Amino acid sequence: MIQTVKGTRDLLPDVMPLWLRVETVAREAFRRYGFKEIRTPILEQTELFARGVGEATDIVHKEMYAFTDRNGDQLCLRPENTASVVRAYNQHKLYNDKTAGENTKLYYIGPMFRRERQQAGRYRQFYQIGAEVMGASDDPAIEAEVIEMLDWMLKELGINDTTLLINSVGDAALRGAYLETLRALLAPQLDKMCSDCHHRYETNALRVFDCKIESCQTVIATLPTITDSLDEASRTHFEQFKAHLDARGIAYRVNPRMVRGLDYYTRTAFEIVGASGLGAQNTVVGGGRYDGLSELIGGVPTKGFGFAFGLDRMVMALPDAEAERLRASDAPDVFIVFLGDAARQHSFRLAQQLRRAGLSVVLDFDERKMKKAMAQANKVQARYALIVGDNEIAQGTYGLKNLATSEQEMLGVEAITQRISESAKP
Ligand code: AMP
Question: What domains are there in the chain, each with its CATH number?
Answer without folding.
Answer: 16-170+251-323 (3.30.930.10), 173-229 (no CATH), 332-422 (3.40.50.800)
